Amino acid sequence: RVNERFSLGVNGAYVTTPASGELNVATGLQLGRVAAESRSWGAFSSYRASPTLSGTLQYNLSRNIIGDSAIRNVVPDSATGTGIGSGTDLDLTPGVIAAVGGDTEETGIRVDKELSPTNTLLTAYTYRTYDFDNGVDEYSHTPTVGWLHQISGATSFRVQAGPRIFSDTVEPDIYALVTHELPAGEIEVSYTRTESVLAGVVGKVESEMADVEFDWQRSAKLRFNGGLNYGTIKQEQSAAKVYQVGVEAQYRVSQKFYLTASWVYSRQKETFGPPLVIPRNVVSVGFVLRYPTQQESSTEEG
Q1: What's the whole-number mean pLDDT along residues 31-47?
Q2: How many whole angstroms separate alpha carbon 265 and alpha carbon 284?
């Protein structure tokens, strides 16, 4: 934070995985065990012009690299539109669409105006471009207007919607969220309809997601979070439904060291290729190192 009114920030991430579906975090869709990489970085700046008016500018760039570099110039299969043609030498599971990477670039601006202690007007505009390795390019413009309302001291409601414009088509872009705070945590219920990309699939897809998530501080050292998710993903004649449930536990050993364990079960019915029903269980354990701690960070800012 530069000062009380102006903030700047940057972020970046690198992920490599033997299963490209691991990159589809927003939708949870699995498309086969094809190696993939994701590289992303972003920057933002925010400015509070007055106690009731603030604005944010942000930019994000991400790149998915799917399989070998030999597939970079694969021409889309005219019959399926999948991008898996005779030019690829990858050993792909039949029907799995996982042969083309690409870049996603997003630029956005948001302005929030507090109308009263319980009501805030939300306005935003987002421009996205998609550049796939086989030469397919797409874009979209999304202006939205929304409302944030504090229903009570513990419950708030947020909705934001607008037209998403691309080529000669207009689709709705919607985000709605209800948050309820509990004595030792919170519950969130959300609905999202937007566009997304799937690692290995040429062209953006339409997604609808409904989520119920919770966060519970069981004790000073033990915390749980998890949720239920349901989503549909569509692209022309292809479609998929994804169901997912998961829970994570985090145990604080010290102010800087945490142990984690999680379980996620997902089941999907998809027709990105031959109709498939794919159940999946994932159990993981790990640890988290934090530095500086929140207490140290607060002391430094003070």
Answers
A1: 86
A2: 12
